[in-house]
Task: structure prediction
Amino acid sequence: MITKKKAANGFEYIEIENNSATAKVALQGGHLFHYQQQGKKPLLWLSPKSHFEIGKAIRGGIPLCWPWFGKHRTDPTLPQHGFARISAFELLESNEPDENTTELVFKLQSSAEILVLWPYQFQLFLRITIGPTLTVALTTRNCDTKSFTITSALHSYFAVSYISYVSVQGLEKVEYWDSLTDDTKIQKGSIHISEEVDRVYQKTTGPLLLLDSDRTIKIVRDGSCSAVVWNPWKDKSAKMADMQDDAYKTMLCIETANAMGDARKLAPGEEHTLKMTLSEYV
Ligand code: TA6
Result:
């Protein structure tokens, strides 16, 4: 079942329910902000203080960072993580191929308003498959006569039982930029979180595992050479208006990305797809 919803403030989203799972996707940003398999707890974390307002990114779920990850390289007045997550996507297609699966395709394309932010003709397609697993695929098409370069991320917020219980596997021995110290390091062993963490792992393509006390989440990536791991910890959580002070205890971002040195250059007519498939095991 696919139901279009509109909040009192005009914020539009889509509710999906099938035999596998339920999900919610906002038209702003093509932002999937809820995914929960039937009989299980939500896979994604969503802040109870999140805005659901036009022009403000939802805090949680899977924000799309595109066409740049992080701060704009040269213009600090431009939105962090690009403009896609605060832009109105169009729902192109919705299919229910079987009772366990729902497929949605959203589209964003260059417009006079967007060209002011980013001077290239493009089409951006977001394909979301809600089933026993969750697949998100973001395809960039260069519709311009000149090349352009993008960095991007599926900025996934995962719900965890308690941050001290979790570990992340799959990034052992991978080089990462530590944004807190502005230097490059090598990951030793699996990742445990006991303080603020904000790292961009580079040249990494393999599957990642988020091991929690009551489940394991597997992230299979395609078209991605970076992985970002972020937890704001106490101080940052308390400073963020759309996060509760103790939010850091029950969330962890593991992002399927192409960031920094893993930027992608697209020639005219070229396409690139950044894709991940999430599954969970008890
Ligand atoms: O992905 C990590 C990060 O770049 C952090 O530095 C932090 O800023 C986080 O994204 C959230 O960014 P946002 O713009 O959504 O508040």
Notes: The domain at 2-281 is CATH 2.70.98.10 (Beta-galactosidase; Chain A, domain 5). The longest strand covers residues 271-281. The chain has one domain: 2-281.
